[in-house]
Amino acid sequence: MPQVFSHTTVLLEEAVTSLVTDPSGFYVDGTFGRGGHSERILRELDAQGRLMAIDKDPEAIAHARERFADEPRFSICHGSFSELDRFVADAGMTGKVSGILLDLGVSSPQLDDPERGFSFLNDGPLDMRMDTSSGESAAEWINRAPEEEIADVIYHYGEERFSRRMAKAIVAAREEEPITTTARLSKIIAEANPRWEKGKNPATRAFQGIRIHVNRELEDIEQVLEKSLEALAIGGHLVVISFHSLEDRLVKRFIRKYVKGDEHLPPGIPVTDDMLNQRLNSGGKAIKASKAEVDANPRSRSAVMRVAVKKA
Ligand SMILES: C[S@@+](CC[C@H](N)C(=O)[O-])C[C@H]1O[C@@H](n2cnc3c(N)ncnc32)[C@H](O)[C@@H]1O
């Protein structure tokens, strides 16, 4: 029997309570995963409410089609949430979306299934793509990229200080034989890491960096945040859950930029609200998982949720 991998939804109540303000509204779940948030959103909506979900991962799409086959208020789109403008325009809802939810990063089924190639714990083909139907796999990239590019990715996206040594070891190893499995890559990286942190796999940071690069994760986030401004209705809520500081920094900066507005207007001219481009109100302080949630689901430990409300 095929193994079933499940996902425990993080900040479920908090996210849905912040998101749904109008039960008859049109909502977007930009990261369907296994539908934990989607299911809860649908429960909050009345017969007029609609939910459009998006995911890059064909397995998530198949799951959505099966799970919500009999749910007329639900639709699913395959692609990146960075294409939000197109998906929302196709639904005729530009400027009319009541709320957008983004629960960033990878799902547990992606991490836990060795065949997806994200895991340094279980051996599998070195893939790491959320969208297995397009783009370059981790193996394709790692066997062709220049040493310096590999080092930069591991340093910037993995925040790994031994990135140069690791990139050097990867390039030396691939000259002997192409690197095609997660176990081999993890071993090469671990051997190049001179300082193993207690309780942390020595390849953790490097794997995170490579995953972020292969999936263009930060570029996609920057794009969807900007595009949410045109998609949302006035008063619509943007709710974003991040799992590491690189993601959260982008979200925090984006909200701050549009709450404060343009601070660099030429001096000496009367400034109108329009010119300031203040398009968001802050939805309050960042929210973290409760102790009870962290005890029940350790993955929620690093989750940070931020909320913003479209103002203009
Ligand atoms: C943390 S999981 C979401 C879990 C979901 N909220 C649930 O409760 O089941 C993140 C999901 O977002 C998807 N994803 C990540 N980045 C994406 C992007 N740029 N565009 C579309 N989907 C993306 C991943 O494929 C994954 O399925």
Give a verbal description of the structure:
There is one protein chain. By secondary structure, this protein is α/β, with parallel strands linked by helices. It folds into 2 domains: 191 residues, Vaccinia Virus protein VP39 (Rossmann fold), CATH 3.40.50.150; 82 residues, Putative methyltransferase TM0872, insert domain (DNA polymerase, domain 1, Orthogonal Bundle). It has 14 helices and 8 strands. Strands 1, 2, 3, 4, 5, 6, 7 and 8 form an 8-stranded mixed sheet that branches. Helix 3 links the parallel strand 2 and strand 3. The chain is globular. The model has no long low-confidence stretch (mean pLDDT 96). The structure holds S-adenosylmethionine (SAM). S-adenosylmethionine (SAM) binds next to helix 2 and strand 2. It is found in: Cytoplasm. Keywords: Cytoplasm, Methyltransferase, rRNA processing, S-adenosyl-L-methionine, Transferase. InterPro entries: RsmH, SAM-dep_MeTrfase_MraW_recog, SAM-dependent_MTases_sf.
